[in-house]
Design a protein that fits this description.
Helix 1 packs across helix 2, helix 5 packs parallel to helix 8 and helix 6 crosses helix 8. It is built from nine helices and no strands.
Length: 197
C-alpha cells in the first residue's frame, strides 16, 4: 500500500496504532511483524515505523495506554451522568457490549490477548484508572446498600466475570450470535450475582 504523503505525522501515528491493534487482536503480538503493521497502516515499509516508534513493544505499549485512556474517559462520563451504582454499571456493560460489536479489536486486546506477556512492566489492567474507577463504583454501591456486602474485588469478579466471559466467548466465536443477543441475559445474571436483596 502506498503511503499517503498528505497525511500528518499524527495521522500516520494513529494509523500505525490502529493497524497494530487490529493485527495484535487477530494474530497475537508475537505473530505480528513490523512489516505487517507498516503495510496495513499505509507506511511504505517497516523503516517508516521507526520514525514514530523504537520497536514493536513500544507500539504495543502505546496501543495499551491509548485503550486505557479512552476507557477511563468513558467511565468518567458515565459516572458524571449517573448517580447510582446500578445505573453506572449498566452503562459500563452497555459500553463493553457496544465495543464488542463496533470495535471488537479493542475488547479482544483487553479480554483475550495476554498483554502481560509482552508488556511485563506495565501496570496490571486491574490497577489501571478505568478499572480502579469501576471498583469505586462497586464500593459506592456496597456502601449505599445497593450491592451485597462483599469486598469490591470479589464483587467485580462476580459481576464482570459473567460479562467478560460472555464477551470472550462472542469474540472467540464460541457463542455464535452477535454480542447484543446476549446482553440482557448477561446483565441480569451479573446483576443478580451482586444485588442486595
Amino acid at each position: 500500500m502506498e503511503q499517503d504523503i498528505t497525511k500528518s505525522k499524527e495521522e500516520l501515528y494513529n494509523d500505525i496504532l490502529g493497524a497494530a491493534l487490529k493485527l495484535f487482536a487477530e494474530k497475537g503480538y508475537f505473530n505480528t511483524s513490523l512489516t505487517e503493521i507498516a503495510e496495513l497502516s499505509g507506511v511504505k515499509n517497516s523503516a517508516g515505523i521507526y520514525k514514530h516508534f523504537k520497536n514493536k513493544q513500544e507500539i504495543a505499549r502505546a496501543v495499551y495506554l491509548w485503550i486505557i485512556d479512552r476507557l477511563s474517559v468513558s467511565i468518567d462520563d458515565i459516572r458524571r451522568r449517573n448517580r447510582k451504582s446500578p445505573e453506572q454499571l449498566r452503562e459500563i456493560v452497555d459500553l463493553w457490549f457496544t465495543l464488542t460489536e463496533q470495535a471488537p479489536e479493542i475488547m479482544q486486546f483487553l479480554l483475550v490477548v495476554r498483554v502481560s506477556e509482552f508488556l511485563p512492566d506495565e501496570q496490571p489492567i486491574m490497577e489501571t484508572p478505568p478499572f480502579t474507577k469501576i471498583l469505586k463504583i462497586l464500593q459506592m454501591g456496597i456502601k449505599a446498600g445497593e450491592i451485597k456486602a462483599l469486598d469490591p474485588q470479589r464483587a467485580y469478579c462476580h459481576f464482570f466475570g459473567i460479562i467478560e466471559n460472555t464477551l470472550k466467548q462472542v469474540l472467540t466465536g464460541t457463542l455464535k450470535k452477535n454480542a447484543d443477543f446476549y446482553q440482557n441475559d448477561a446483565w441480569n445474571s451479573a446483576w443478580a450475582s451482586i444485588v442486595k436483596n
